[in-house]
Amino acid sequence: PFFASDPSLLLDLPEIPTAAGLAPAGSLSVAELKDDLRNRNAHVAKRLVDVTGWGHAKVQAEMNSIAGVRSVASATNEQLARRLRYSESWLRKLLR
Fold this sequence. Notes:
By secondary structure, the protein is mainly alpha-helical. It contains 3 helices and no strands.
């Protein structure tokens, strides 16, 4: 096109995220975010097991209950983020 020779008219646009999780460079895909949230939830669960003395299954069940999550395997990113926030709050209260 005739405007290609004018650098002031060039515009870099990021890739558009898709349902498959394609995300702009430098950010996490939907799947990567879910993995990160699951890992962070697992870390908090381990700390809660240490602090409460409860078994892993009981801590996981309580984390799900306080966040209103049925299971981590089927949870959305929003649900995993909420579960993480509530569990971190629970842990902070126990460490006071």
